[in-house]
Write a structure and sequence with these properties.
The protein has helices spanning 15-27, 47-57, 73-80, 92-108, 128-136, 150-160; strands at 3-8, 30-36, 64-69, 84-89, 113-118. The chain is α/β, with parallel strands linked by helices. It has a five-stranded parallel β-sheet, with helices on both faces.
Length: 161
């Protein structure tokens, strides 16, 4: 069985994230979607809220496993018994960032196989930051969030006001 890990902050999950996960399902038997706890970031949504949104997004898809992980991605790969680490890239800035992480991860886990999945043209500008800025300035962000979780996201936002 081929399994991969796709990790991120997912604050909140976007249509871009969904496209990466959907492409992973074309390549792998199981996709572990890991909500990473990053103490350097101040997320809008809690780990539990982000996990719930992703679980709702893939409700009924037994090949997607959503977890929250507090630690290094190489430790998560070990825990999940897979060398395959998938990264979505939108542009050269993403690529440079991911490539620097690749070399650091390779020193920690020699057998890591990092797979870069380029964003499709209609997803190049989509990011969690774009969604959060749209929320902040009261602009429509419905095109950037999967329709399956938009009502849940709106409810969470209403509760935060």
């Amino acid at each position: 069985m081929r399994k991969c890990v796709f990790a991120g902050t997912f604050d909140p999950p976007t249509t871009g994230h969904k496209k990466v996960i959907d492409n992973c399902l074309k390549l792998f038997d199981e996709v572990v979607v890991a909500v990473m706890v990053n103490t350097d970031k101040k997320p809008l949504f809690s780990d539990t809220e982000r996990e719930a949104l992703l679980k709702k997004l893939y409700e009924g898809e037994s090949r997607v496993k959503v977890v929250v992980f507090d630690g290094a991605v190489v430790d998560l790969l070990e825990k999940e018994n897979t060398p395959f680490y998938v990264r979505g890239v939108r542009n050269t800035v993403d690529f440079e960032y991911e490539n620097a992480n690749f070399f650091a991860n390779k020193k920690l886990k020699k057998d890591i196989v990092t797979i870069y999945l380029p964003a499709e043209q209609d997803s190049l500008q989509i990011s969690s930051t774009l969604v959060k800025n749209s929320v902040k300035f009261k602009k429509d962000f419905s095109d950037y969030v999967p329709k399956e979780i938009l009502p849940d996201l709106l409810k969470l936002l209403k509760n935060k006001q």
